[in-house]
Sequence to fold (908 residues):
Amino acid sequence: MSVQIQSAVRAGIDPHLSPRSLDPEADLMLLHFGPQHPSTHGVFRMDLLLDGEIVVKATPYVGYLHRAVEKLCEKLTYAQVTPIVDKNDYVAPMTNEQALNMAFERLLGIEVPRRARWMRTIFAELQRIASHLLWLGTFTLDLGGALGGGTTLFMHAFRERESILDLFEDVSGARFHYNTHTIGGNRHDIPAGWDDKVKAALAVIEARIPEYEAMSVANSIFVARTRRIGVLSGELALELGITGPNLRASGVDHDLRRDAPYGAYDELTVRPCVASEGDCLARARVRVDEMRESIRLVRDGLAGLPEGPICGYKPVRQPTQVKVTAGSQVYVAIETPRGELGTFVVGGGEPPTSPHRLKIRSPSLHALSAIPYILPGHTVSDAVAILGSLDPIMGEVDR
Amino acid sequence: MNALAHGAAYGAVIATVLLAMVALAIWFERKLAGRMQSRLGPTMVGPVGLLQPIADVLKLLQKEDIVPADADRGLFNVAPVLAVLVSLGAAAVVPFAPSTIAADLDVGVLYVLAIGGLMVIPTFAAGWASNNKFALLGGMRAVAQSVSYGVPLVLATLVPVILAGTMSLSGIVAWQSQHHWFAVWPVLPGLPAFFVFFLALLAESNRIPFDIPEAESELVAGVTTEYTGAKFTLFYMAEYLHTLVGSAVAAALFFGGWDGPFAPGLFWMVGKTLALFASVYWVRWSLLRFRADQLMELCWKRLTPLSVALVLLAAAWVQFVPGGGK
Amino acid sequence: MGHVLDALRAMGTTLVTAFRKPTTVEFPKVVRPRAERYRASFALPDDEHGELACIGCLACERICPSYVIKMKPTGKIESPVTGKKRQYVDAFVLDLSACIGCELCIQVCNSDAIRMTREPEVPGFSREDLVLDLERLRANAREKTMSWGKGSELQERQEPPKAEKKPKPEVAPVAVPVAGEAR
Fold:
């Protein structure tokens, strides 16, 4: 219903209409921005109908990375599922684990100890910095090419991301897929001396952010490539269910960390970064500002970290130790670097040690649904920039 | 000996040396890029990675040679060869030392600009003949870009021609060696003219920020998408050759070519060429690329009026400054 | 003009970086020290009596989400070292190429019999090179350094606080069709 209104209001191109039906004589070229392409952020396909270089219609196709994660989770038990969902949003794995385990805790009625909640918050914010660094690197890579200035910023951003991954390695033993969250809390406690390392790493990153800005959001070529490109209005974003930095860059001040606090966010002050233009530049600026905000939150988190136990439920000893009776369901959502990641669990599977249904609400899927609306009217170069600025991660889009 | 034999002999030597320098240039660029990105660049193959370009060329040469099914075979095969020939051709009139020049044409500048303008043909042929939409888009953009940036290129080249009073490259270099380098004095038409020439050189050789014909993140590999093996090697070499020869021409036109104290002219020429070549790559590894329409706007709305003004200034300088600017 | 100034600023950043020390660590000439808890490969160490610590309780085989562990327990035998009856394993196979590195097998082992190692396996030329059998796992225990994680220690550190009354579950029961019913 509101899709037609939206299109009518914008008086632009209705994404669901076939341009050839409007004008059969038009000389349009169909370009498959196929699953194999240097800048589709994973296996993602867009069919672009081009009039010269202008995109007239864009159709996204997802599903190339579908790994049947939700079905697999129905087969495994509650205790075994955490390392599987690690691989959904593979750029910010701590957040996947956190969303999943928070849902299980709510389902079982477990209270998570304070120290575990604070630790989870610190990890989530560090993960946010790492994810935005990766995004910044790949976005400038899209804009500037793999053989040029884009690569330079990419290498610099990854250098800083390495230091955060080293911090995670110190805590959990793994650099990428940690499996450090568990039902009731965390599995690994913070080792001695970790907070000094964190502070040192944050100091380096904070000093380097102005360098990144000089080569990205404050750079006039970048601004020329991203200003007024891919404007996503706040209403359209809300209709499509877009959350996170994409929504905040369109002027809607909505952040789950402040509006529906979880973890330690009820005790920490979160100041969401909001922009109003809704174009690629606004999304880029919001993410760079969020990096700074996350640095501050990590520092506050470390300062206020309480002592105590790190888990509020029995540790994993056998797969069948968690049983959930039929008839209970829960939905828990957290604010990841991409938006609202939600886990919907229905308990009481056959056997009761497995979930009956585990559904993951991924923010990147909703972000990609904006493509048919905001891409038409721009050129092919802009298509790449817009896709990059939405920050989709195909692992969580396709699950 | 007569001009043909002279040209053939010197030409063969210069072509060989240039091709060898391409290998060195590839190594240099990769090391430079590495350092700018806080990493090392090639280190394993040969001392400090000096043999890396040889390894790359050998690897490329042994790849399967694929011609797409519905491609225009003739054009497809000819395009890379033409690209290399055109890039090498411009080196015929560049004075490498006071008497080392393959063909001392009276209209050397005209010849360089004409040959440089020919470069659009192999690029577009590659894009068209590949039967690939990405390549076609790249080819379209290449034509628009090369033809458009030819205008400021020609106008910027006119400035040293007017100031020196001759179209022969060796004559321009000789004039600069007797008087002063054009990029240094007169500052007003000289330095901005070099700047415009530099930007146009970046655009003609498809270097970032003007590399939309081969924009890897948008068009996979642009015009060279369907090329593999030896033909890709030729395109790859042609890019570096074009940049090298363009830098040599810029050194000759604006920085006095082989002019310089205490060392033989060849050293100065090579040094200036390498300095300009390094600048081209310094710009490349620092900046993002322009979109096609922004690039056109930059050319037509900013560079072309600027270069017309510079030509007029150069003419005014020669006419009104006492001594004709000597 | 703005483009020129910003371009020069970006070029300045790259120039400054060009003169800094590169961050590259030339592996394998230089190996960065791994964290104490780094988990790479697996090992089956010996217990304090010098014989295989693994008692074949199948806990790790059951917990593994990727089903990479298969073992054949022997049944209770008298130990040649201590004289007591205990179980061993005849065969223990861990398919490293399918392992997702989640450390759950280490977590559940009450005997601290399976550990992760801090050095990864050497890359192999065939799939079989990455299937770790009992010999290789015992060899890893002798040759590689163990990661910090041990089953007993992980479980002890994760014990919930005692005497905490669990609050009432917050979810209200909702009638949901269970699999097999009324489809």
About this structure: Residues 3-36 of chain B form the longest helix (34 residues). The mean pLDDT of chain B is 85. The radius of gyration of chain B is 20 Å. Residues 3-325 of chain B form one domain.
